[in-house]
Amino acid sequence: MTYCIYHIPGKKIGVTNNLEERVTRQQGYTEDEYEILDMSDDISYISHREIELQKQFGYRVDQKLYKDLKPKNEQLNHMKINVTEQTTTFPCPVNKLKGRLMDEVGMSWETEHGRCCLDPESIKWVMDNVKPSMYNKDRCYVYNKAFARYFDNNGCCRTNTGALNMSGHGYMPDRFDLIRDWANERGLYDKGDTKTQYLKLMEEAGELGRAILKNDQDEFVDAIGDMVVVLTNLARLGNTSIEHCIDQAYNVISKRTGKMVNGTFVKDTL
């Protein structure tokens, strides 16, 4: 079996043994939108090489090697839905469906009534309209005609700005939405609070300081990423959003004038 390390510029570096299934069908990228960085029949080599390239390109580094995650990934990323003329049936009960669907963001399929795909907004529609199977407690379904009508009204697999990606299909999820979905699934917003997240932020800031002092680029990237995650959750727990906070800050700094002094921008005083 040949394993490929693929690179979606600006997005991620990953491993698969089926580019058509994993990158094109599930994530919605055409051949001209990604590149192959390495190939090998040796899963151990390719797993370590993926981590090396993620560090080299500055992406978040997987915590576990691909060879250790492979069985789980195959289960999560190859959800075997059953599409008939009337319905799309999912292979899990309703109470486990949202997590399975979030693992399949970018997946799409054709129905008699049109094309359907998964992004955070369409997943919300599914969860509002899904019905448990009368014949199998471990299955649930939605009606294709209603799901397709949702896309007629809202567009299929759009970004948060309402634009399709370059290939014309395949959702490009917003990073902050993914962080919030991740945190919400784990109960952070139900059981966490601003004080604990602030302490976590200070811990991550300390790691960033150590990375700078050690000139450790990998730790530098990891610490900044962790701080963004914590800030996203801190904002949510503080009844706002990180996007709003960023917008407010930019509205202020965009009007500032000043000059650089000893490597720091010093704003003009009134």
Structural overview:
With 270 residues, the chain is an alpha+beta fold. 49% of the residues lie in helices and 17% in strands. It contains eleven helices and eleven strands. The protein has helices at 19-26, 43-57, 66-77, 97-102, 120-129, 144-154, 175-185, 188-191, 194-214, 217-237, 242-253; strands at residues 3-8, 12-16, 35-40, 82-83, 87-90, 108-111, 114-117, 131-132, 140-143, 258-261, 264-267. The strands form four sheets. It has a four-stranded antiparallel beta sheet with strand order 4-5-9-8. A three-stranded antiparallel beta sheet has the order 2-1-3, sandwiched between helices. Strand 10 and strand 11 form a beta hairpin. Helix 9 (194-214) runs antiparallel to helix 10. The longest helix is centred in the last third of the chain and has 21 residues, at 194-214. It is globular, with a radius of gyration of 22 Å. Residues 70-77 and 158-173 have low confidence and may be disordered.
